[in-house]
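**Folding the chain**
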Amino acid sequence: MLRTNVGAEQLSNEVIEIRRVGKVTKGGKRLRFRVVVVVGDGEGHVGVGMGKSIEIPMAIQQAIRDAAKHMIEVPIVNGTIPHEVIGELGAARVLLKPAYPGTGIIAGRTVGAVCRLAGIRDILTKALGSTNPLNLARAALDGLARLETPEQVAARRGKKPEEIMEVNGAKAE
């Protein structure tokens, strides 16, 4: 997890899901609310959190704190992601593909919120498997966490970034 110096006032948040959940006890049902929230600064930092409480505003605050605690840094190249990646969590899988400038965010509500708050402007996505909003958001976060910049790939392979950017001997733009 990333510890950023981003203050809470600089983070934007978006509520993804509010669900009423219950626990059955011998005295009856104990109802609470589960809230899933995405927070981000729009500059490459994003997190997903969950909160539960008997009141919705308290659950939202708890979820925002949880999301800020679990933020990651996303490498963004020209408003999109550096390469294609699949993020997974449980049965939820999310395919994330880079897109040309002007494409916009082609995504469902949950994955779109994660990308938007991360600061990605152009991306193509596809949700595969489970469509549970919490698992989809965390799968998208997993995919974004797996991204590597060309510089990181070059360092891992012991090459120069220019060599990594070449495609079949020709320089890529």
